[in-house]
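BUG-300 | component: ligand-complex export | severity: low

The export step for magnesium ion jobs runs without errors, but we want the raw record kept on the ticket for reference. Input record follows.
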Amino acid sequence: MSSVEAAVRIFRQLEAEDLRILAVVEIDLSRHRFVPERDIIRLSELPEREAKYRLERLTEFGLLYRWVGSYVGYTLNIAGYDCLALNALVKAGVLNSIGKPLGVGKESDVYDAITQSGERVAVKFHRLGRTSFRKTKRLRGYAADKRHVSWLYQSRLAAEREIEALRLVYPRGVSVPKPIGHNRHVVVMGMIEGDCLFRICSLPDPETILDEILENVRLAYVGAGVVHGDLSEYNVVITPSGHVLIIDWPQYVRADHPSAEALLKRDVSNMLKFFRRKYGVIRSLSNVLEQIKRPLPSGA
Ligand SMILES: Nc1ncnc2c1ncn2[C@@H]1O[C@H](COP(=O)(O)OP(=O)(O)OP(=O)(O)O)[C@@H](O)[C@H]1O
Ligand SMILES: [Mg+2]
């Protein structure tokens, strides 16, 4: 069972008092590596016996980690953070139920789910700071003001950046999943179907697919002022009708960011290299970049 599935199973058993304790620990984690038990009891405003019972139960569930040192303290486990986010999304009327995994990766777990209005959506739980030094290090650029950059903070930052990017590019017609909602380290977006470009053995018309990808890069850059920043055959999906979707946006930068030009060049170069290697399509990087930067026709 994946960690999200475990969190969902436990989430169903949680009571309001359990969630209150989790929320208190979360808030105080900005000040402590392990939040003192005494503070949790006080801040939860629950009777001491009740608070202690909840702390024990949440630790047994694996939502909290109990630390015994010079004092007794607690920290949130990923499953505890998952439960806080799920609770907020259910309360906000976004999610109704979580289904099966769609993609379980190094940096995220993606699940299918149903919204309260019955729409099928994808829910992406960001998981940073454990296995991916690369992404962690790059996101640190945005976290320079935080001295203690924890997995929790990094995962939340990745989700915030991803929903921001989707909200910027989706209305400009860039082919991406529809942004639906967000809480903590979790992004809710439209469900997409298709296969990642790297999985596909042969494309009937690689030139047209490459053109469509580049047109989306251009719409994002010129139309929305956004550079993907991590574009590769792993983050391009080909739909069953043969169209392109671009996913996985937490590393986006605005077009006026000092690294924007370099990242745009790298994104485009990644795509051109892939199409050259796999499909023998040859394009000049400088020509393509020039095309991408041309202003959109007025009214677009
Ligand atoms: N909106 C969506 N609808 C359906 N499936 C999705 C959606 N978004 C992502 N997925 C699935 O989840 C996988 C991982 O998504 P994404 O690339 O955004 O995350 P990631 O952090 O890069 O994960 P990984 O470490 O596996 O690359 C995708 O390859 C795809 O199979
Ligand atoms: Mg990816």
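Assignee comment: Attached the raw record above. Confidence is low (pLDDT under 50) at residues 131-137, 139-149.
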